[in-house]
Model the fold of this input.
Amino acid sequence: MKTADFYFDLPQELIAQDPLEDRSSSRLMVLDRKTGEIEHHIFKEVIDYLNPGDCLVVNNTKVIPARLFGSKEGTEAKIEILLLKRKENDVWETLVKPGKKAKPGTRISFGDGLLTGEVIDVVEEATA
Done:
């Protein structure tokens, strides 16, 4: 199996921005492997699909609420930064929108200059 097998297009509007207050009400997609039929349910119904001996894997990772809105110094172009993972004290792995405006050396100002950051490297392909 290759990680490329898991690449697919996911429209931005289908990506949850905030968790549901009642997590058990999250959506659940059920695939019948024999027929290929897909059904949509809610997660609290998952117990209806589990049998003795099944293994349920739960992803309990946390998304940090760290979306920053700034502007490129010099042009004042608007830039959105999503902090993903701290690499060192003041170095973060991020997603940048629009990415084409964030080349190494680009300085970004946040909060009317209260915080500034600098792009030090660009990674073309995201890592897991």
